[in-house]
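Lecture notes, part 5. Sequence design as translation. It can be helpful to think of inverse folding as translation between two languages: the language of shapes and the language of residues. The source text, in structure tokens, appears below.
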């Protein structure tokens, strides 16, 4: 069943995905199992986009499918930002990248884990990230990109944070197909992840470890 969800997402079969998710819930699958299956399918969509098999409209369709899944009453994945959050995450897709899927999944997982999430959206410049950091003082900055040139804007973001004496106040985690260990070193970030729950759990460890400037 879960593998069928992966395949249906990969093929952008919206009605079939919704039907399979509802059935999986009925059969006792957990929220995490379902979202991990959806994520696996979306990862395949991202790979198709990278190789040119899918275009921007296909990415948008994948995003729509995920948003429809979030709205299902049987899942009730999204929570409002909690009054007493365990930490604040500033979230965005970096400049020149319109990819929204991974960011949306990360946001949902972070909200379910008790974080307050400030979602700046897509195609966000380093200057805007720094301006919001000054305003909101987040504990973590989470930046997503599937485009190869996104890494240079991530590096610019880190350099601006250093210049403004803000870097020591936050942790930076990178996500998306363009990120890897070497990218973390190049950018000057703290970590990267290709798995939503791994990334959110790392953010939780940072909060529990007292790394936040506000804890």
């Amino acid at each position: 069943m879960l593998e069928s969800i992966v395949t249906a997402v990969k093929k952008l079969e919206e009605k079939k995905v919704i039907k399979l998710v509802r059935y999986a819930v009925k059969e006792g699958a957990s929220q995490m199992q379902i979202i991990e299956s959806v994520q696996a399918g979306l990862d395949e969509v991202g790979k198709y986009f990278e190789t040119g098999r899918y275009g921007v409209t296909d990415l948008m369709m994948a995003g729509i499918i995920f948003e429809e899944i979030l709205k299902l009453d049987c899942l009730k994945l999204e929570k409002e930002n909690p009054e007493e959050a365990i930490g604040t995450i500033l979230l965005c897709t970096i400049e020149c990248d319109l990819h929204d899927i991974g960011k949306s999944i990360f946001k949902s997982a972070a909200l379910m884990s008790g974080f307050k999430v400030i979602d700046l959206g897509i195609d966000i410049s380093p200057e805007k990230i720094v301006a919001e950091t000054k305003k909101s003082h987040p504990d973590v900055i989470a930046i997503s990109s599937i485009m190869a040139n996104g890494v240079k804007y991530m590096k610019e973001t880190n350099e601006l944070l250093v210049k403004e004496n803000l870097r020591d106040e936050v942790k930076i985690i990178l996500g998306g197909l363009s990120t890897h260990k070497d990218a973390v070193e190049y950018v000057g970030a703290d970590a990267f992840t290709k798995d939503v729950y791994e990334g959110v759990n790392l953010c939780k460890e940072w909060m529990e470890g007292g790394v936040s400037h506000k804890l």
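The translated text above is only one of many valid answers, since several sequences can fold into similar shapes. The two ends are 42 Å apart (CA to CA).
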